[in-house]
């Protein structure tokens, strides 16, 4: 259904993701840099090696759009191109995750998010 909250959030994320790609293209920044930095926010998941609680907290902090928006605003106000470039890549990554249905982690496991439950590939039966 197109009007469920999760579907609406995914469509919203798709729109911002596309906007981020267009904005990045218009700025003329390096696509190699984009590719190299795109998954960097996922480094926040390293906390899962210690505990689910730490992992979800770190992941959520690196996927909170406040940070790339603040960095982008800083870059815009000061003219720092690197800050603007990183902010666009960061925001685009966060929206990519949300578009795919990955949201803030709820703490139970990596696969439980505010966007719903994902199938843990370790739990899938092999036939």
What does this structure look like?
With 127 residues, the chain is mostly helical. The chain has one domain. 57% of the residues lie in helices and 3% in strands. The chain contains five helices and two strands; from the N terminus they run αααααββ. The protein has a two-stranded antiparallel sheet with strand order 1-2. Strand 1 (112-113) and strand 2 (116-117) form a beta hairpin. Helix 1 (5-27) runs antiparallel to helix 5 (81-99) and helix 4 (66-78) packs antiparallel against helix 5. The two termini are 32 Å apart.
| Number of beta-strand segments | 2
Spell the H/E element sequence. HHHHHEE
Spatial sequence of strands, sheet with the most strands? 1-2
Q: Average pLDDT value? A: 88
The residue fraction in helices comes out at 55-70%
Low-confidence stretches: none
In total, how many domains does the architecture comprise? 1
Question: What's the shape?
Answer: globular
Determine the N-to-C terminus distance: 32 Å
| Number of alpha- plus pi-helical segments | 5
Strand content: under 5%
Task: Offer a concise description of the structure.
By secondary structure, the protein is mainly alpha-helical. The chain is built from 5 helices and 2 strands. Helix 1 packs antiparallel against helix 5 (81-99) and helix 4 (66-78) packs antiparallel against helix 5 (81-99).
What is the fold's blueprint, element by element?
Blueprint: H1 5-27, H2 31-37, H3 52-62, H4 66-78, H5 81-99, E1 112-113, E2 116-117
Antiparallel strand pairs: 1-2
For the structure shown, list the relevant keywords.
2 strands, two-stranded antiparallel sheet, single chain, mainly alpha, globular, 127 residues
């Amino acid at each position: 259904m197109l009007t469920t909250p999760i579907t609406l959030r995914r469509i919203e994320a798709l729109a911002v993701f596309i906007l981020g790609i267009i904005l990045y293209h218009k700025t003329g920044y390096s696509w190699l840099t984009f590719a190299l930095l795109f998954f960097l926010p996922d480094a926040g998941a390293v906390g899962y090696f210690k505990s689910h609680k730490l992992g979800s907290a770190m992941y959520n902090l690196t996927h909170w759009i406040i940070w790339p928006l603040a960095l982008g605003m800083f870059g815009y106000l000061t003219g720092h191109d690197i800050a603007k470039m990183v902010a666009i890549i960061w925001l685009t990554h966060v929206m990519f995750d949300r578009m795919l249905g990955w949201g803030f982690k709820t703490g139970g496991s990596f696969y439980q998010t505010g966007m719903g439950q994902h199938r843990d590939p370790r739990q899938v039966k092999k036939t």
